[in-house]
Amino acid sequence: MKAFFDASDVRIEEFEQLCSQAVSLSDYPHAAGIESNVLIYESAALRALIGEEEAERALLSELNKCLRSGPGVLVIRSMYNDHSVIDASTKLFKDIVREEREQGFGLGDHFGNNERIWNSFQKVCIKDPKTFVAYYGNPLLGLVATAWLGPFYQITAQVNNVKPGSKAQSPHRDYHLGFQASDDVIRFPAPIQIMSQYLTLQGAIAHTNMPLESGPTLLLPFSQQYPPGYIAYVHPEFVDYFNANCVQLPLQKGDGLFFSPALFHGAGTNHSTSDRLANLLQVSSAFGRPMESIDTQCMINAVYPVILDMKREKGIKDRFLNDILAAIADGYSFPTNLDTDPPKGGYAPIPEKQLVLRAIEDLWPPEKLRDALKDYAGRRRA
Question: Regarding beta strands 38-42 and 218-219, do their DSSP bridges make them parallel or antiparallel, or are they unpaired?
Answer without folding.
Answer: unpaired
